[in-house]
Design goal:
Helix content: 25-40%
Radius of gyration: 33 Å
Distance between the termini: 76 Å
Number of helices: 5
Strand content: 25-35%
Shape: elongated
CATH class of the largest domain: Mainly Beta
CATH architecture of the largest domain: Beta Barrel
Length: about 230
């Protein structure tokens, strides 16, 4: 008797998969003339004229759940198993993305790293274009030319690149407080990589020699990464 009951259930379910019907979720969303193509532990996969969709049993009325033999316990076990499988995969993927991002940043730093002399030699070509300087940074008190009178808004620093050539660098006080504190605490210059820009609005021309920046190189410090 049990065999025939099982067979009849399978036959009824197979018939329901073949027929097109309408489904309405508990939230009122309707799927017209839908054909059930697959029954899964947590829902049904349907095919309509607009494409393939999955409706979770939790979205369906209880009578529909019962018709497709929805078992909440089985669905919960499946979800837990999928989560256990997905967690290591997600962790590995996140680590891979982190490494790729670090590599991209390293490549960007390498391709956009300049020397003070290189920028000094052709300053107008670098106007308003951020670039990298690598070397050391220390506290300075120099304010002149385009940064004359900027004491209230900027801290003054000096960056010395890897060749030993230095330039003045200014950073907004709201952004540079931690940098200044670290330098004061260290009592000396610190090594790092520095993102800077030669701002056109603060650029100063020597009237007698307009092709030369009279003050040397004065840059705006946008960001920094100090070595540990």
């Amino acid at each position: 008797m049990k065999y025939w009951q099982t067979a009849l259930s399978i036959f009824a379910l197979s018939a329901s998969l073949a027929l097109a019907e309408d489904f309405k979720t508990v939230n009122g969303k309707e799927y017209k003339n839908a054909q059930v193509s697959r029954v899964e532990a947590d829902g049904i996969v349907i095919r309509t004229k607009t494409g393939i969709s999955k409706i979770y049993f939790l979205e369906l009325p209880k009578d529909v759940q019962e018709r497709f033999h929805y078992d909440p316990a089985q669905a919960a076990r499946l979800a837990a198993a999928q989560h256990e499988t997905a967690t290591p995969q997600n962790t590995a993927l996140a680590e891979q993305e982190r490494q790729q991002e670090q590599q991209s940043r390293a490549e960007a730093r390498t391709t956009n790293t300049r020397t003070v002399l290189e920028v000094e030699s052709d300053q107008q070509s670098f106007l308003d274009k951020p670039f990298m300087l690598q070397g050391t940074i220390g506290i300075s008190t120099y304010y002149n030319y385009g940064y004359n009178g900027a004491e209230e808004t900027h801290y003054s620093f000096e960056i010395t690149d890897s060749t030993g050539r230095g330039c003045a660098a200014y950073m907004e006080r709201s952004k540079a407080g931690n940098l200044r504190e670290r330098l004061l605490s260290a009592g000396s210059s610190l090594k790092g990589a520095f993102t800077v820009v030669l701002l056109g609005g603060r650029y100063y021309y020597d009237i007698k020699r307009p092709s030369i920046h009279a003050s040397g190189l004065l840059v705006e410090l946008l960001d920094y990464r100090l070595e540990q």
